[in-house]
Amino acid sequence: MADPDVDVALQRIEKDYPCSDVKEMTIYYDQCAQTYELDVANLNYATPRAIAEAASNLALDDQKRTWNILDLASGTGLVGEALRKSGFSGELTALDCSKNMLQAAMNKPGLNNAGILHTLTVDSPVPLPDSTFDLIACGGGFGKDAITAKCFQEVIRLLKVGGFFIKSSRISDQLKEFHKEFEEELSHLETSQRVKVVASDMYSQYHWNTSGGGSTGIVSGKLDVYQKL
Ligand SMILES: C[S@@+](CC[C@H](N)C(=O)[O-])C[C@H]1O[C@@H](n2cnc3c(N)ncnc32)[C@H](O)[C@@H]1O
To answer: Which of 89, 94, 96, 201 would give a disulfide with 105, using CB separation of 3.0 to 4.6 Å?
Structure first.
């Protein structure tokens, strides 16, 4: 017997997802902002917790209180919320191109977010100075029609020397080309000694298992941690 909540979530999160360009994607997220958290909860979305755990492994207790953090492609603020729950109490800025997703992040009690409504592309950098952040966390924001591989350089620009970038992206056939492009960008940045890989792990990003076995599945994700040199 299928679980209707899981079926609805899969329809909205997986099947309705548009692929043509960032404009269409922004409209999609504006439309699904109200149902996003319900849907990802029904699919046991694990990314925010995975990012917060990775960040906790990098920071000493006093750094948790002082790090200036960017939640890049914040969506409704789930990553920021998980970081707060893990003890990160310094400045936290959410950035997203969807007005409605960002608004939900800004409305979350206790986050004290600053919010930036901005579409990050190679031609449209984030309107902030170099070396602003100690940590940039990005859960599911990089991808083919979202934040493109070339924007890795912009993330590095925004980090302080020694700062960390934690990125989660899903593993799927549709994103094969994106992952290849990202590896090329990484290789340039490593060769020019601007960045090093600290950790790279696969994990279960979504999984669902409905009663009666009507619909079961798993979507794998890759969690990468980089450090600016
Ligand atoms: C899969 S959602 C993830 C949201 C959140 N990080 C989470 O883990 O729940 C992707 C988010 O990235 C945002 N996004 C995608 N491309 C973007 C871009 N180029 N600039 C800014 N935000 C972008 C979308 O609006 C959406 O809110």
So the answer is: 94
Q: 137 C-alpha vs ligand 1 centroid, how far in Å?
A: 11
Residues in CB range of 32: below 8 A, 6 or more apart: 12, 16, 39
**Contact between residue 145 and residue 121 where contact means Cβ atoms under 8 Å apart:** no
**End-to-end Cα, the chain, rounded Å:** 52
Token output for 52? 């917060």
SS3 label, residue 142: strand
Mutation test residue for ligand 1: of 97, 148, 219, the one with most atoms within 8 Å of CB: 97
Q: Which helix (H) or strand (E) holds 134?
A: strand 133-139
Q: Which residues in the chain come in under a pLDDT of 70?
A: 1-2, 18-19, 210-215
Q: For the chain, give percent helix, strand, coil, nearest 5.
A: 40, 30, 30
d(CA 52, CA 32): 24
Domains of the chain: 4-228 (3.40.50.150)
Residue with tokens 């090093």: 196
- pLDDT for the residue 1: 47
- How high is the pLDDT of residue 14? 78
- Token pair in block for residue 90: 């310094």
Atom 15, ligand 1: which residue's CA is nearest? 146
